[in-house]
Amino acid sequence: xxxxxxxxxxxxxxxxxxxxxxxxxxxxxxxxxxxxxxxxxxxxxxxxxxxxxxxxxxxxxxxxxxxxxxxxxxxxxxxxxxxxxxxxxxxxxxxxxxxxxxxxxxxxxxxxxxxxxxxxxxxxxxxxxxxxxxxxxxxxxxxxxxxxxxxxxxxxxxxxxxxxxxxxxxxxxxxxxxxxxxxxxxxxxxxxxxxxxxxxxxx
Length: 203
Ligand SMILES: Nc1ncnc2c1ncn2[C@@H]1O[C@H](COP(=O)(O)OP(=O)(O)OP(=O)(O)O)[C@@H](O)[C@H]1O
Description:
Layout: H1 8-13, E1 17-20, H2 27-37, E2 42-43, E3 47-49, E4 63-65, H3 68-76, E5 80-86, E6 89-94, H4 95-103, E7 107-111, H5 114-121, E8 130-135, H6 139-149, H7 154-172, E9 180-183, H8 187-199
Parallel strand pairs: 1-7, 1-8, 2-7, 3-4, 8-9
Antiparallel strand pairs: 3-6, 5-6
Helix pairs in contact: 6-7
Bound molecules: adenosine-5'-triphosphate.
Adenosine-5'-triphosphate (ATP) is lined by residues 21, 23-29, 145, 149, 184, 186-187, 190.
């Protein structure tokens, strides 16, 4: 559906799932396994961005590449379920992109950070998705995992840990929309709990 009306039928038949949690909590690891186990069941929406395409990137595949003006228009029309700026560029998940996944009969998985979660939860028209928070067992364990992942420099690790503290406090506060918090201590157990939340009780 286009032109501002929301395909609530598709979105309630295949309710999107918002998964959030600190960087390093294990979201990618768990989602990859879920997509491998259920290859036809899920989808990631294609985001909008104002950054320039990189070599090999295609409009509509990696991102919808738009101008700042086009991006702003969609913000004003409340066409994004959530949007943010990183490194001077705007990024957003459009309602339309999420609908497209639901219209294919798939569950859209939205892997988004805390500010985005708040926007989705407070969106004026977008039907409420289901919210899951993936937590590391502790900040100490998170620090070890970020260090052993070895993808970040020291200052990036410290920033992620600070942000993790804020996200974990938010998740435990009464303001957070999460229906479930899964603690990723033992990976197998966490995976089964995530799977039960996502697949075990549809829609
Ligand atoms: N239960 C676990 N026990 C031990 N190590 C784990 C566990 N879960 C994930 N890891 C490891 O922790 C690191 C972080 O996991 P991952 O990259 O999936 O996190 P993420 O939440 O997707 O982070 P980002 O948001 O930065 O992409 C990885 O090296 C992963 O192999």
